[in-house]
Predict the structure of Iron ABC transporter substrate-binding protein.
Amino acid sequence: MLKSLAIIFSAVLGLASGAAEARTITDAAGRTVEVPDTITRVLAAGPPASVLTYVLAPDKLAGWVREPTEEQKAYLLPSVRDLPTYGQLTGKGGSANVEAVLAAKPDIILDVGTVNDTYRSLADKVQAQTGIPYVLIDGRFADSGKTLRDVGALLGAAARAETLATYADQRIKDLNDSLAMIPADQRPRVYYGRGPEGLETGLSGSINVEILEAVGAENVAAAAGKGSLTQVSLEQILSWNPDVIIAASGKFAASAKKDPLWADVKAITTGRVFTAPSLPYGWFDSPPAINRVIGVVWLQKLFYPDRFKGDLKAETRDFYKLFYQVDLTDEQVATLLKGAVPASK
């Protein structure tokens, strides 16, 4: 089992004066990394780390992996909207180079998500090339509270991390308590479609469909095996015949509802095609990070409306205020939920 991030407060410099200048940590890959005692600039290796740094310590974010769109900026703090963009070090579409990393002058590089030999090797390589401490964090959804606390301790934001972690822990507990009372035959069979045609999805075990499995739904694409993201055919989707379709893009949701080739899918005939909210980050995926905490609240209401007693609009406002530190207008709430819930709700 992968080791969780263990913060070891051991000063390796300045012991004589009693002022610790550095400390040693063991990251989720079991790597021993020496990091500054006080971290003021964080370079995110990919989008999940970018989101995590923003919600915990926005003032420490060195820049963006991808430049936020104008639509995204409206849901972010003004102080971070125009930070520089340096590209992505890890995952699909990696574009940052050593020069860009050095120019950002970070104290550490933070990478959050899947932890395996590939990412461990990348971390070692980048750290050796740049001389900048590279810390790998396991991004599994079930461990959201622990991830927040561990990274909060790393970044010197323990108090804020505890507040956010307490919220995440409670939402996951509420979810699990509800699921314990829902029999298997009352749980939906769901297809998650990415891209404008909806033909990319996550296989069993994919971090991109992690919260679908967390809310007790059956991922129909699991029939195609274990793995990560993959392309599937319309014929496969027709054979799976999902009860619900979650679309990553509104374009796919709209086209699937009108396309005669999709007409016989149960989710289409029953009007159960929904678009995942995506501003400033996705509630389902994109990226598969701490932003998904609000996603489980949404999916509970969507899949088990008789058992969900909360107010989704109020919960949305609370989450955005707490995690993103923005006060949503009525119009912004409506934008987020457009296509995400049944029109009559």
